[in-house]
């Protein structure tokens, strides 16, 4: 941050996410490749910050490269079927060896605490255990996968009790049967099963794969689960990316509100994905993430946070909380992933068949993305539905923006009589009118 003001503005911009995420459960899964790349210490710092923000974190690690390394040391060749490891006795021993080593590495990473580092005063106590009950995958396409399994049950009540103590939980890609057998699982299956069983609010895959792009090379930022299924069927994604997307879809279709696929190549990618509007990965949800709708009383706090800076610099007339609560039915909001990013109010004057659009505001972080125009069209449609023929605005700084969208300059005399009496001659706002 170059100036104190920039720091303050940045901190305020992430505050809505901090409030929204408090007490939520996130399942964060990462592959063994992240550890091989040396990115584990930084990820531990970022996840520790989530814990400090009262987010309940369940961590799931993968171990494919570590298992391959153990097999190579024993001169055992790995076998696969449709990308899934065939786990014989030797491979299972390698999986156990790798999981044990990774667990210790992860515990060490969360034990950081040097002064003047992000982990100072963290005192994170990560808990692991036999929380995953598994069963064998069996024979698929005539191939016996032997000791490769899939999750049968997650000890959700026990995990929730641990999370309530502010300790993150660590799950390895191993599961155990009631008869005491161990099975090698995929990290993706464990993460999805845990997210579903825990009713997690988010499932986050921190991946070795690059940002997903469509057939034209355009980055894929957001998908509903239905759109994601269409992307899978189109068949243009690389195999690894498609595998992650397949599991993200399964999670969302089973009740997890949001799933994220985030490349780990960028420093702090998990934080950037969670605490910025556009993120740095691909977000999948069961429904579309963004909604443009009439405001409710629950939106008052979000509206106040949005308009306060503009009231402070004189762009908007100050409105107290009580006034906004009384007039909340007049407001519309644009919401993205639970955060209010834009609003506007419509005040009708039925006798004149005119309506005033007021308090049109879009978060500065997402301006120039068309949200202001979308809100304007929404308010215009509301006005038409109410039988109004004209829409007017009073503005001191944005007259050109409105004129580009069909508003014409007018005088105070063109306003409804009731509105003329309330006109603030000290502000000398410009009057602009648009026929609907």
TrEMBL record:
The UniProt record lists the keyword Transferase: yes
Keyword entries, A-Z: Acyltransferase, Amino-acid biosynthesis, Arginine biosynthesis, Cytoplasm, Transferase
Alphabetical list of SUPFAM superfamilies matching this protein: Acyl-CoA N-acyltransferases (Nat) (SSF55729), Carbamate kinase-like (SSF53633)
EC number: 2.3.1.1
Any GO MF annotation of the entry: acyltransferase activity
Reaction(s) catalysed (UniProt annotation): L-glutamate + acetyl-CoA = N-acetyl-L-glutamate + CoA + H(+)
InterPro entries from the UniProt entry: AceGlu_kinase-like_sf, Acyl_CoA_acyltransferase, Asp/Glu/Uridylate_kinase, GNAT_dom, NAGS_kin, NH2A_AcTrfase
Cell compartment(s), UniProt: Cytoplasm
Main location: cytoplasm
Pathway as given in its UniProt record: Amino-acid biosynthesis; L-arginine biosynthesis; N(2)-acetyl-L-ornithine from L-glutamate: step 1/4
Domain N-acetyltransferase: 290-429
UniProt similarity note: Belongs to the acetyltransferase family. ArgA subfamily.
HAMAP family reported for this sequence: N_acetyl_glu_synth (MF_01105)
Note, other: In bacteria which possess the bifunctional enzyme ornithine acetyltransferase/N-acetylglutamate synthase (ArgJ), ArgA fulfills an anaplerotic role.
Protein name, entry field: Amino-acid acetyltransferase
Organism per entry: Massilia antarctica
The gene coding this protein: argA
């Amino acid at each position: 941050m170059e100036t104190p003001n920039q720091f303050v503005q940045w901190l305020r911009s992430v505050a809505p996410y901090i409030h929204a995420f408090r007490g939520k459960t996130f399942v964060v899964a990462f592959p063994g490749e992240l550890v091989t790349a040396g990115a584990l210490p930084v990820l531990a710092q970022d996840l520790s910050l989530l814990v400090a923000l009262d987010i309940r974190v369940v961590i799931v690690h993968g171990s494919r490269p570590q298992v391959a390394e153990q097999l190579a040391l024993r001169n055992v060749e790995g076998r696969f079927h449709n990308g899934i490891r065939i786990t014989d006795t030797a491979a299972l021993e390698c999986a156990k060896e790798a999981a044990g080593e990774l667990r210790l590495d992860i515990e060490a990473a969360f034990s950081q605490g040097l002064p003047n580092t992000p982990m100072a005063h963290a005192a994170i106590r990560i808990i692991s255990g036999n929380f995953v009950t598994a069963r064998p995958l069996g024979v698929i396409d005539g191939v016996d996968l032997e000791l490769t399994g899939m999750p049968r049950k997650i000890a959700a009540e026990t995990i929730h009790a641990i999370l309530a103590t502010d300790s993150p939980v660590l799950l390895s890609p191993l599961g155990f049967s009631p008869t005491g057998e161990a099975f090698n699982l995929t990290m993706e299956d464990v993460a999805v099963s845990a997210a579903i069983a825990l009713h997690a609010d988010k499932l986050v895959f921190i991946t070795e794969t690059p940002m997903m792009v469509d057939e034209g090379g355009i980055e894929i930022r957001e998908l509903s689960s239905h759109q994601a299924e269409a992307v899978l069927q189109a068949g243009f994604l690389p195999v690894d990316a498609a595998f992650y997307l397949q599991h993200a879809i399964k999670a969302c279709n089973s009740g997890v509100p949001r799933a994220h696929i985030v490349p780990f190549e960028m420093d702090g990618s998990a934080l950037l994905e969670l605490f910025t509007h556009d993120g740095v990965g691909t977000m999948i949800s069961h429904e579309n993430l963004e909604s443009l709708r009439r405001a409710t009383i629950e939106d008052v706090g979000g509206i106040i946070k949005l308009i306060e800076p503009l009231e402070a610099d004189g762009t908007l007339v100050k409105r107290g909380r009580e006034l906004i609560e009384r007039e909340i039915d007049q407001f519309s909001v644009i919401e993205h992933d639970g955060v209010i990013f834009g609003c506007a109010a419509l005040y009708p004057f039925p006798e004149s068949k005119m309506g005033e659009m007021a308090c049109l505001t879009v978060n500065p972080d997402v301006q120039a993305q068309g949200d202001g125009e979308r809100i304007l069209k929404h308010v215009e449609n509301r006005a038409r539905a109410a039988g109004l023929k004209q829409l007017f605005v009073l503005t001191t700084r944005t007259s050109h923006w409105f004129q580009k969208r069909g508003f014409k300059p007018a005088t105070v005399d063109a306003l409804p009589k009731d509105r003329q009496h309330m006109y603030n001659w000290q502000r000398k706002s410009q009057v602009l009118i648009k026929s609907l």
